[in-house]
Design a protein that fits this description.
heterodimer, A: 181 residues, alpha/beta, Glutaredoxin, 5-stranded mixed β-sheet, two-stranded antiparallel sheet, 6 helices, 17% strand, B: 166 residues, mainly alpha, 2 domains, membrane (chain B), transmembrane (chain B)
Chain lengths: 181, 166
């Protein structure tokens, strides 16, 4: 009888652990899938106006033909400020074309931000209303998009661009994309 | 009398509570379309879309600025003449299937949709096995054995060697 009781307790617990373990391992292996629809799709056609004080804005054809990064930033975003030195270093030392998209900012604030902290971008476009952001499935700032030479979006990094993200994710991806196949 | 008044108060309070969500509507008047039919379609679509910021809210419920952008985007697509399906495709193309609050039935979500039925089936199978294994209790013979008859007779005072009561 003792054996029977033990079995009747053990079996449900074992089944519970089995199901839980399977679900947990599946969940642990799942990436955040927000905004994955854009992956491997071409950049939308766009032509964003320049920041106030700039001559040129940012258009889709500016970026085509090379592997490039598009960094979405805003002057009101603290994480953008914290990643800014990293962007400056990328522009100065790594030779990867870096473009800026000033997202949902007040008029003039984007230029002031870049004047104060340095301008790492080859060109910057203004997206005051977040219209291009909606096309790109931007969910917040900062976000950084990796675009291949054909103008397809290959990767999106959500959050601040750190040395670790650069070394472990973006640089290997860029190397793969630049390798002639 | 006081009981009745209390009941009336409670009812009034319940009515207020029921009305409260209406006043907390996220959709702002300036977003709404003039055409009531289009606006209704926009609302219905918004209810199906996940807000990318507040994850478990629809963009119709969410006060996030991004949800507002998406609501406006949906209305623009509708005004441009898109069908409901085209609007959904437009958003899924950009944000991925995750934008849909109700996952579509597809190869990658089949397990998700079938999981409740599978678990229910497994539970029934488990119980039926358990019940069958236990089975009905083994039938006991109704006739008394000789020993039992002796014990019974002794208890009733009719055993051998015992006379009738005085």
């Amino acid at each position: 009888m003792a054996g029977g009781i033990r079995k009747s307790v053990l079996i449900p617990v074992a089944v519970f652990l089995l199901i839980g373990g399977v679900l947990f391992s599946v969940a642990a292996g799942t990436r955040d899938v927000t905004g994955e629809g854009y992956l491997d799709r071409p950049l939308p056609e766009f032509s964003q106006p320049p920041l106030i004080g700039d001559e040129r804005g940012l258009a889709a054809e500016d970026i085509r033909g090379e592997v490039a990064l598009i960094n979405v930033f805003a002057s009101w975003c603290a994480l953008c400020l914290s990643e800014h030195p990293m962007l400056m270093r990328l522009a100065a030392e790594e030779g990867v074309p870096l473009y800026g998209l000033n997202w949902k900012d007040r008029p003039g604030a984007g230029r002031r931000f870049l004047d104060r902290h340095g301008d790492p971008y080859l060109a910057t476009g203004e997206d005051a209303a977040g219209r291009l952001g909606a096309q790109l499935a931007v969910t917040g700032v900062p976000e950084t998009y990796l675009v291949d030479a054909e103008g397809r979006i290959r990767y999106r990094h959500v959050g601040a661009l750190t040395e670790q993200v650069w070394q472990e994710v973006l640089r290997p991806l860029i190397r793969d994309l630049e390798r002639p196949s | 009398m006081t009981g009745l008044r209390q009941l009336a108060r409670a009812l009034a309070f319940a009515c207020l509570c029921a009305l409260a969500p209406v006043s907390a509507l996220a959709v702002q008047p300036d977003e709404m379309l003039a055409d009531p039919a289009l606006e209704q379609r926009a609302r219905a679509l918004s209810l199906e879309m996940r807000c990318p910021v507040c994850r478990n809210q629809s963009i119709d419920d969410s006060n996030a600025e991004l949800a507002r952008d998406l609501r406006v985007l949906i209305r623009e697509r509708l005004v441009a003449g898109d069908s409901d399906a085209e609007v959904i495709d437009y958003l899924v193309d950009r944000y991925g299937a995750y934008i849909l609050l109700r996952p579509q039935i597809g190869a990658d979500t089949l397990l998700l949709w079938l999981a409740p039925a599978l678990m229910l089936g497994a539970a029934f199978a488990g119980f039926s096995i358990l019940w069958r294994r236990k089975g009905p209790p083994p039938p006991e013979s109704e006739a008394l054995s000789e020993d039992e008859k002796a014990v019974l007779a002794q208890a009733l005072g009719q055993g051998p060697g015992q006379g009738s009561r005085p």
